[in-house]
Design brief:
The protein starts with a strand and ends with a helix. It has one domain. Strands 1-2-3 form a three-stranded antiparallel β-sheet. It has 80 residues and is α+β, with helices and mostly antiparallel strands. The longest helix has 19 residues.
Length: 80
């Protein structure tokens, strides 16, 4: 499951770059509001395949993963 990208939380100085990002952000927001209005709390909105789902925050916190240092190395190289 893929969760909350920068597209989902547009803030000053952070731009969504593609139409896909903007549409995904809108879908996340709509689902989050719908779930809140339905009384669902303690969950996170995320993308699984092409479907927007929620997952319990307790489950998210229980699954600890280490950062992929290869991505960090690659980002440093591309930032030069």
């Amino acid at each position: 499951m893929l969760f909350l990208s920068c597209a989902a939380v547009p803030v000053a100085g952070l731009m969504c770059h593609t139409a896909f990002d903007r549409l995904l952000a809108a879908r996340f927001r709509v689902t989050a509001v719908e779930r809140l209005m339905a009384g669902e709390h303690g969950v996170m909105v995320g993308l699984q395949g092409r479907k927007i789902n929620t997952i319990a925050l307790a489950e998210v916190c229980a699954n600890k993963r280490r950062a992929n240092l290869e991505y960090y190395r690659m980002a440093r190289m591309l930032a030069k």
